[in-house]
Amino acid sequence: MANVTPMSSGSSTPSPNRKALQRSGVSWTDDLPVCKYSDVGIVPNAVYLPDGKTMEAHQYSDYSFNFRAENGCYLYGLFDGHDGVKAAHFAASRLPAELLLGQINPSYNPPDSSIRKVLYQSFSIVERGFFESIDDALAKKTYMQTQIPHRLTREAVKERCPELHARITALDNEIKGGTTAVVALVINNKLFVANVGECRAVLCQLNAAQNYLEVQQLSVDHNIYQNQELARLKNLGINIEKLQNRGKLGINECARCIGDYSVKGGYKENEFLRNAISEPSIAEPSITEGLIMDDYPGSFVILMSDDLYKSVQQCDRSVDPNEYIASLTSRQLLVQSSINGAAQAVVEKIAHLHRHHFKSKSMTCRGDMTLIIRNFSHPIGTNAIPKLSFVGGYQGVDEYPVTVPYLPENGITSNFRLVMPKSSMPNQHRPLGSYSSGSPSSGTPTNMPNINPVAGAASTAHNSVHGLSIGPNDDQLEREDEDEGDQFYRCDQDESPKLDANGRVESYIKFDTFFHRQRTKSSDSGRRVAWSKR
pTM, whole model, 2 decimals? Predict the structure, then answer.
């Protein structure tokens, strides 16, 4: 585990310029360029229905950014909202302003202590701003509660004073909501990570010579099962045994977050928390020491929401999710010609894996999944599809040789070419703040590496590259996908394409089933003709 030290609070008052920016409602981050060394992948939550289809249970509540600022400064953040999207959206919009508007100047090579202090204060300022944004609703709720007859329970108020109960409920909806967060800041090629809650940051380093991937978790899981958090909650007077039996602090198991009034100012309304001497949940981040990334050749960092790694855990408890996701990510970086799309490929594979594992259990749920990849020096495209040789053009198109297993009955062979348009659409970045609501295609097979899983959950671990496996092998997935009607595509989409003796790419489409059907149809047709002649 990276060295994490507590920080003194210091001043946490936003500057006048930042206050004016907050009041304006304009997001200055809209003009920040996207970091070209990073990629973001998202898959929304899903409920598996009895008919085999899926539906979203709630609005996608994760927010993220991957910015390139000035003077060699980069900022990445992931905010996993709960009980609504308000807090996650607020934090993702405001936190960059607390870090990139002059607080840190990379040109002066600031000491680690100053950078860590700014990171610490940014979380405090953002939370304060969030609660200020709901001050009016809190004041109205406090006044409404004074109108409740003495000692009436919430259920009794609903029955005796339905109008008052409805108004208080409406105010509760305005107040509720919190978010966990993980932020990575890169200054002069030095990495700092800060987090509250269960979003993770993981450092991954590929040693290609010795064929292993070193995985180190940089963040801290702030939940009711972590020893440090348990000790803190116990010192507040909370019954730890009852809390763990309940399985959550407020609406989830996180012990730290930004926002969430129900476990902060309103914790007295929770029977499991009302005996605490102060607010049970806090927004104090754990912050790593600065890591000089030149000391980690072959490295990349991933930021991920808790539902991403928990989906892996739900499928196989014996597999370390950090290692598994790092292995998938490394594999995608190696087989793709650029980093674009790598994160989306990883989250879709895990979503498909989870659906495959739980599709027989209707009404099983999976949460929103988000993954940010920031590559430093991990190789990209080493095993990518080789470039095809241009063999000529005709009427505005380019033609490339391609191998097709075509078996005409007359024995005459033909030369086939892959025809490609001369112009293609350029790669476009996904606009920040926009999120896809589409679920991954149920017919897309995943190619999970098929080697014995590695058990354990150490913060730092070594495993052979791409050496973790969960669930069925490729043949099983292929057979199941064929049952669903997707019968013509190979499942080894992540494997590097091989060239034949003529230097052509082997076919990525299976024609076996097609030929079998054609022969079957021909035989049936011949029998029908023979029968009609009788």
Answer: 0.73
